[in-house]
Amino acid sequence: MDFKTIIEPFRIKTVERIRLTTPQEREVFLQNAHFNPFLLRSDQVIIDLLTDSGTSAMSSEQWAGIMRGDESYAGASSWLRMEKAVQDLTGCPYVLPTHQGRAAEHLLYSRIGGPGKVFVSNTHFDTTRANIEFSGATAIDCPIPENRDPSLLHPFKGNLDTAQLLDQIARNGAENMAAVILTVTNNSGGGQPVSMQNARDVAEICKKYGIRFILDACRIAENAWFIKHREPGFENATYREIAQQMFALADGCIMSAKKDALVNMGGFLALRDLDLAVQCRTVLIITEGYSTYGGLSGRDMEAIAIGLEEVFDADYLHYRIKSTEYLAEKLHELGVPIMRPAGGHAVYVDARVFYPEIPLDQYPGQVMVCELYRLGGIRCCEIGSVMFGKYDADGQLIPATMDLVRLAIPRRVYTQSHIDYVVETFGELVKHRDKKTGYKITYEPPFLRHFTARFKAVV
Ligand code: F0G
Hints:
The chain is of the alpha/beta class. It contains 16 helices and 16 strands. The protein has helices at residues 23-32, 60-68, 77-90, 101-112, 126-134, 162-172, 196-209, 220-230, 239-249, 274-287, 298-310, 314-333, 351-354, 364-376, 385-388, 416-431; strands at 47-48, 94-98, 118-121, 138-141, 177-183, 213-216, 252-256, 267-271, 346-350, 378-379, 381-383, 390-391, 397-398, 404-408, 439-443, 454-457.
């Protein structure tokens, strides 16, 4: 029998109190945070959907591993365990531990990037792009065209457009292509999956032209779920085998362990090329730490080794993807415009469509994140003109291509009743959909303004 209720495939042994605030309290908190949820304190939040990164609940096995952590400077047993777990999964012999994903990006992209070099990706995540551009190189996003239409259904909306890739190779010359980066799942492109066929096609092109193929693998277990259930030929493969097949196509990978390794901190770079690994290892030792711990404690490495096993558990992945899909479908039923189909780790709401009357320079996405906080104490992130907007010569806003709001779901943290509460809050939001005004920015720093910008309501 197929039960409809998504049960969490774990019992709860330790609990963390959520302070249930009142709407009156939240109004004050929001004003004190200058209408920017990034400036709220976490104990002012009821359900925190700001990110799925580093917010996972660890298992009792991982906590046991934390106690076993070997804190030796060199050759710690915890490092050997993590190294083996990464080698077994990725097939890459050279593993470099780092304190998180972007540190691994810095190691690799500062080596292979530089002025005149070009990177192509299905969509570069912000820190990936920043590391590439910081080296002087250029980062070009080439998602398939379907990715740009939020409501269009496609099983692998995160795929890279291989025709555009070929075009970029022809334009820039294969010798100037530093790497092709496949981000699985495609976070900035809506958390959408990438098919094995797409990865194979990319690998073949890269091989033909002698270009490095790197996987940004931080959500590769979630991606494997979509392949098993949507791509013919994988019905009988395990999630882990699917991930291993995808890793086998690439020359190396970067992983922020804060996602699918189910830990709160950590990451790694894994490579097949010894020469490149030696070069990156030199930077690792200078900037992160000795090569057998990078920026990590022994206990962190122990927890990563265990998390990389646990994440491929079939019951866990089923619960994970189905609970994200559940939220997406409930919001769709309420008439809330969302990016469809649902991604693996998050639901993306189209705030521009939800609030058609709010001018773009009054930030409809910011209105939605503030309203969700006011109504339900839910914290989430604007991914739109606050995050990506620029100004023209006259100081007028050049809006982002979309004004989305991301509801990112932490792993193993919230139960179905928490998600039902989020749905109920959206039910209230829908009743006040006729808003006509939004916010103006009163303070913004020159870079990454969304983290610290301050706003005031337009009345
Ligand atoms: N690549 C992708 C696809 C990511 O989503 C992230 C982080 C990184 C690299 C960088 O990893 O944070 O460990 O340095 N994404 C987080 C998010 C921050 O909220 O989506 P990191």
